[in-house]
Each structure stands twice: as C-alpha cells, then as structure tokens.
Amino acid sequence: MDPSATLTRILDLPPVAAVRAPIDLYNRAAGGLLAKGLAFAALFTAIPTLLLILGVVGWIANDPAARDRISGTLISTFPPLEGLIADSVEALSNGAALTSIAGVVGVIWTVSQFYGSLDLAVARIFSDEPERSLILRTARGFATVVLLAGLVVGLVVPGAGGCAAS
Q1: Disulfide-capable partner of 115 in 83, 88, 89, 141 (CB 3.0 to 4.6 Å)?
Q2: pLDDT, tens digit, 9 for 90 and up, residues 97-117
Q3: What stretches of the chain adopt beta strand conformation (E)?
Q4: Is the pLDDT of residue 162 over 80?
C-alpha cells in the first residue's frame, strides 16, 4: 500500500478539506509574515499608550492628596525605591500636560496605522477584493480611532460623574 496515496485520500476527505481550506489560504497569503507585521505594529502602539497612561496619572498626581496616596502605596510596596518613586511621581505631575498631548497624538497615529496594517493583511488574505489605497486606509483608521475614543469617553464620563456625585 502506497503511503502517499493513503495520505492523499485522507487529505481529500470533506471534513479534512474543510479544515485545510483556511490554512491553505493563510499560507498562500504569507500569513505568518502578516501576523509578524501585525505584532510589530501592535508593539509600537504600546509606547504612546504608555505615554498617555503616564500623562493621565500625572494629571491625577497634580492633587497633593492623590500624589501622597500614589506615592504611599508604591513606597509601601517597594520600600527600597522610596526616593525614586517620590521623584517619579513629582516628575509625572510636572510633565502631565506635555505627556498627555504626546500620548493622545501618538495613540491616534499608531492605532490608525495598526488599523491600516490590519486592513492590508485582511485584503492580502482575501485577495478577491482589491486593496484600499494608503490614503483610504489611513482615513478609515483615523475614523475608527475617533469612533472608539468617543465610545470610551461616552461610557466612562457618565460613570465617573456618578462616582463623583456619591
């Protein structure tokens, strides 16, 4: 009995062919390379997101009571770093405005570029549709970021207002 003929018959069975179809499509589109590119783009969205988070923490740390709570919690958790923590929280509160602006701009840009990369990857996998132009991909990315940011603000602000009232 020929093993290659047996393997061919098994691979041609309808359930096996149904499982193989998306895998073959992924391989034809160089899916591994696309996935690595998306991971790389996602990594770069982390840097401005971290800047934005640090900026928001800096705004919170502008309140002396909040700064003392943040410093106290961190110092009690990491006592050997007391001097570094105190200086870092002070620096965060001093640079909050610039850090927040850089974070917002960076998040909008990198997330919209990530959207563009994702759109391009999907277009390469499903090659029966033409790829969108760079301008259209970027515009759709910006629109998606604005929509998501509006959704987050629309959900968080009413909740925060309810917490502040109580």
Answers
A1: 141
A2: 887 888 888 888 888 888 888
A3: none
A4: no
List, for residues 55-86, the tens digit of each pLDDT value: 877 777 677 787 788 778 888 888 888 888 77
Amino acid at 14: P
Distances in Å between the alpha carbon of 26 and those of 31, 32, 34?
5, 8, 9
Going through 41-128 in order, the beta strands assigned E by DSSP cover none
Task: Compute the residue count for the chain.
Answer: 166
Q: Could you tell me which of 144, 50, 42 has the C-alpha nearest to residue 102?
A: 50
Nearest to 111 by CA among 152, 61, 156: 152
- pLDDT, mean over the chain: 80
d(CA 2, CA 10): 13
- Backbone phi, psi, residue 133, to 5°: -70, 160
Round to whole Å and give the CA distance between 91 and 159.
29
Write down the pLDDT at residue 161. Answer: 57
Distance CA 17, CA 37 (A): 28
Contact 131, 123 (CB under 8 A): yes
